[in-house]
Amino acid sequence: MVSLAPLPAFYQIYKKKTSEGFQSIPYVVSLFSAMLWIYYALLKKDAMFLITINTFCIFIQTFYIVTYFYYGPKKEKIVTVKLMLLFNVFGFGVVFLSTFFLPNHSIRLMILGYICMAFSLAVFLAPLAIVRKVIKTKSVEFMPFTLSVFLTLGAVMWFFYGLFLKDMNIAVPNILGFIFGILQMILYAVYRNHPKKTVEEFDPKLQLSDHPVVVDVAKLGSDAVETQGGNGRNGAFNKV
């Protein structure tokens, strides 16, 4: 449900034919985190739930990124490609090569668990950019409420799942996930009925002047008559 929660936002992107205003980093980081958790589950063994949910997460996050990339402005496309190369290619490659060939299986699993925990925290921190935008614009247009709700509920469930398995690598990141989920819901409650700012409020230069522009027609006519004596009708026309 957490993975499917952004679907209304992407339907909005599809209708508007642009992803401007949205950011790709939460989906790139979520994809990277899912890749790490599958690697962790394969090494840990007997962690089928981690494999199934994160496999689904990889497919859905890939769909989001492709959709974002298709409708995104050129500048945002370049940023998304750079993020993908940094996290999903270079980052995952470094993690895999630095842990897979360790001779001690328990040490390999422990190090990989710490890495997964760190990037799970990064997944929960990624929406901070959206939170900042909500506070700045006083608008929740780009922060789906369903995502905040399911993020909070999912964090609670995964915390207890990790606790019952006595796996703190699963339990600990979800404490932060719960806190940020609550924060996003509070922001939604505060700003959901807030009036949107107009163009003039964002840029005072675009406001129309309150002072009327006065044209003295009589003076303009007299100037034209005076000029007509020296330069003829063309001179009067140019003066006007």
From TrEMBL:
Subcellular location per the Swiss-Prot or TrEMBL entry: Cell membrane
GO cellular component, one term: plasma membrane
Statement: the UniProt record of this protein carries the keyword Signal: no
UniProt main location, coarse: membrane
Similarity remark: Belongs to the SWEET sugar transporter family.
Membrane-spanning residues: 24-42, 48-71, 83-103, 109-130, 142-164, 170-191
Gene Ontology MF terms: sugar transmembrane transporter activity
The protein's name: Bidirectional sugar transporter SWEET
UniProt function note: Mediates both low-affinity uptake and efflux of sugar across the membrane.
Membrane topology according to the record: Multi-pass membrane protein
Annotated keywords: Cell membrane, Membrane, Repeat, Sugar transport, Transmembrane, Transmembrane helix, Transport
InterPro entries according to UniProt: SWEET, SWEET_rpt
Coiled coil spans: none
